[in-house]
Amino acid sequence: DKKSGLPVEIRIGAVCNITPVWLVSLDIDEAEGSGFNYRVGTEYEYLIGSDIGLVGRAGYNSFNRNVSEKKEISLGFGLLYQRYGVDYAYAPYGILGITHNISLKVSFAK
Fold it and tell me: Which of 9, 16, 49, 73 lies in disulfide reach of 31, CB 3.0 to 4.6 Å?
């Protein structure tokens, strides 16, 4: 019997809309050798007009990439205009330190 050596990870998650503009999410996973970890987050959208919105986000990640550090809290915000968006996130990433993530998005949904 020969093992492939590939890591195994099992993950389950859920999202709940508390209100039409506020949601909460939870992910739980178990990776081989790291035990159970969870991630919880929230997002709130503030509509400025019919076409413009601001989004605030916060999250907590129990998986620690460096055992000497505290657990990881991330923050972010986004700007929405019609079907376009710009997002920014501030998140610790273990030995790499703090990361700044910027993304652009386009929604193709009608």
Answer: 9
What is this structure's pTM? Answer: 0.75
Going 60 to 65 to 69 to 74, the CA torsion angle's sign is negative
Q: Is residue 74 a contact partner of residue 89, using CB atoms and an 8 Å limit?
A: yes
| Strand order across the beta sheet in which 35-47 lies | 9-19, 22-31, 35-47, 52-61, 72-81, 84-92, 98-106
User: How do residues 6-62 score in pLDDT, each as one tens digit?
Assistant: 778 889 999 999 999 999 999 998 877 777 888 999 999 999 988 999 999 999 988
